[in-house]
Specification:
Layout: H1 8-21, H2 38-46, H3 59-75, E1 82-86, H4 89-103, E2 111-115, H5 121-129, E3 132-136, H6 146-152, E4 157-163, H7 175-184, E5 188-192, E6 218-221, E7 234-238, E8 249-250, E9 258-259, H8 269-306, E10 319-322, E11 336-337, E12 343-346, H9 353-366
Helix pairs in contact: 2-8, 3-8, 4-5, 8-9
Length: 368
């Protein structure tokens, strides 16, 4: 810490230089986050000091959180669902498995069944909660094999996990089949829709993945991804509106005497930002955003294949993967690579059509 403070000019000159060292979003093709919508930024700034960890001090912000949960619950076909705003998919997934463990207190050496495509947050969750993690192989289509998942379930299994919009390949697992299997085994079923939850409902032909399926217990969704909120903004939703209360602990010195959240201090600003985007765009606006991202994904795949770079999979959401060596991608583009060494690009809202065309031009020139 400086002994004597610096001037505002010096301070923000320093911040400006550091900001300039960040990668320009125009070249970021690998991220599942995007530039926040202008209404999200405006709403965020209005609620900068709001702490949802002590909700009685911020009743207006707390009501916004309830509205956000209500909007998402309705979108996921269960208007009365419970839930709360999290810091993102990692927290939501940890809390879902925490719920599953608390609901099965007598199980010895509990385990959870996840697909090979599960986000690395499930490894964190299992480490923290002392759970065994059984990874189910993917089929040739990069989706979880539902029949194989059923074979992994035994008397010590406390939860089954499916993914709607996998991080690496943009696939939706056979959630309907998994929900049925979960129901047959009377097992907690969590759907990680951190990415796909703000994509699939707005597709022209959405596949079932939410509370419309009787076996789904909880859903994770991240408005700070395709919902274009400020960071961090996630949500965990529960079919049973009172389910989260089994996690309550005493908080005697706060305005509420019990809380079930994982974090203590919780920012209200990104929660307001998330609601702002949903209410400003509405269903029609979100459909237009998703349609644009899917169209760009299709254009990218078609363009790459004209250069002989074939797709690794045909995605359900706006994630494109290719059989392509690292040496074939020119700078300054920032892409990523899957565990199976496939080139991965996410066509987020900031990845406009002109960015796709510029990338394809550079790929073409690289290999002309």
């Amino acid at each position: 810490m400086l002994n004597k403070g610096c001037s505002e000019e010096e301070l923000f000159s320093f911040f400006s230089r550091k900001k300039g060292e960040d990668i320009d979003h125009s070249f970021i093709l690998s991220s599942m986050c995007t530039l926040p919508h202008p209404v999200a930024v405006q709403a965020h700034c209005m609620f900068m000091e709001a702490n949802l960890g002590d909700p009685g001090l911020f009743p207006g912000t707390t009501s916004i959180e309830r509205l956000l949960v209500s909007r998402l619950a309705t979108l996921f076909h269960c208007p009365d669902a419970g839930g709360y705003a999290t810091s993102g998919g990692t927290e939501s997934n940890i809390q879902a498995l925490r719920l599953a463990k608390v609901l099965k207190p007598g199980v010895k050496s509990p385990n959870v069944i996840v697909p090979e495509s599960a986000h690395f947050s499930f490894k964190k969750a299992c480490d923290i909660l002392g759970l065994g993690m059984r990874r189910v192989p993917l089929g040739k289509d990069f989706r979880m094999d539902a029949d194989a998942a059923a074979e992994f379930i035994d008397a010590s299994s406390i939860a089954l996990v499916g993914v709607a919009g996998t991080t690496e390949y943009g696939m939706v697992d056979p959630i309907e089949d998994l929900a049925r299997i979960a129901g047959q085994h009377d097992i907690f079923f969590h759907v990680d829709a951190a990415f796909g939850g703000m994509v699939v409902p707005f597709l022209s032909r959405p596949v079932p993945f939410d509370f419309a399926l009787p076996g789904v217990t909880t859903i994770a969704v991240d408005p700070h991804k395709m919902g274009m909120s400020t960071i961090p903004a996630g949500c965990l939703l529960t079919r049973d509106p009172d389910l989260l209360h089994v996690l309550n602990i005493d908080t005697p010195y706060l305005t509420v005497k019990q809380e079930f959240t994982l974090g203590g201090t919780r920012p209200g600003a990104p929660v307001a930002a998330a609601l702002a985007v949903l209410d400003y765009l509405g269903v029609e606006g979100m459909k237009a955003v998703v349609a644009g991202c899917m169209k760009n994904t299709e254009r990218l795949i078609a363009g790459m294949e004209t250069f002989g770079i074939r797709r690794a999979a045909t995605p359900d959401v706006n994630v494109a993967t290719f059989v392509c060596g690292k040496e074939r991608v020119p700078g300054p583009w920032k892409v990523s690579w899957t565990c199976r060494k496939h080139l991965r690009i996410v066509c987020m809202p900031h990845v406009h059509r002109d960015r796709i065309e510029a990338f394809l031009t550079d790929i073409g020139e690289q290999h002309a």
